[in-house]
Amino acid sequence: MSEIDPIQLLSRWLHIVAAVTAAGGAIFMKLALHPASETLPEAERKQLREAVRSRWAKVVMASITVLLVTGLYNFLRINSAYVLKGTPYHALFGVKVLLAFGVFALASFLVGRSNLGQKLRTNAGKWLTVLVTLVLLVLLLSSTLKNLGVKPKTPVSATQATLDGGNPAT
Questions:
Q1: Above 70 in pLDDT, residue 21?
Q2: What is the rounded average pLDDT of the residues 130-141?
Q3: Coil, strand, or helix at residue 8?
Q4: b/e for 70-84, b at 16 or more Cβ within 10 A?
């Protein structure tokens, strides 16, 4: 039996779960919740949005924390395990991180209690569009990084190659 690194597997799984949760929630809010809430009377709309905001804020903060911790671990692992010199990996990864920080900031403001958060929520449809666009760009870059076809520094086991898909996790 080939070895599976349980920490690597857990890190990848947590990273993907946090990304799917946060991205899916943002897309749901943009395409379903926000438009549906626009049809409600003002008082009910405010009550619904506040109830969603207070609950969703906890999910957003937990997702950001998990993405930062697992993203750093995954990046360090990839840098030590793959030959990245001569590839666009670091440039693409840098753009991905900058966009992800934009997503984190905007999502935090949209669920926050600050004056800026309240101001952004008055035009939530616009800012949800920006958020979803940034999220989709991060996902596009993640997929691009996953499919660069970089080579491992050392030969890997069949199980490890299957786990990695022959490419680094992003």
A1: yes
A2: 98
A3: helix
A4: bbebbbebbeebbeb
- Per residue in 93-134, pLDDT (tens digit) is 999 999 999 999 999 999 999 999 999 999 999 999 999 999
Residue whose tokens read 């997503």: 103
Concatenated DSSP letters for 29-79? IIIIIHHHHTTS-HHHHHHHHHHHHHHHHHHHHHHHHHHHHHHHHHHHHHH
The CA-based angle 28-147-76, given to 5 degrees, is 90
Q: What is the pTM of this model?
A: 0.86
Longest dimension (CA), the chain: 63
Distance CA 88, CA 106 (A): 27
How far is the C-alpha of 78 from the C-alpha of 94, rounded, in Å?
14
Copy the structure tokens of residue 87.
């590839």
pLDDT in tens, 78-89: 999 999 999 999
DSSP character at residue 152:
E
Q: Is 98 exposed, middle or buried (0-12, 13-18, 19+ CB in 10 A)?
A: exposed
CA distances for 146 relative to 47, 88, 96, 108, angstroms: 42, 12, 12, 27
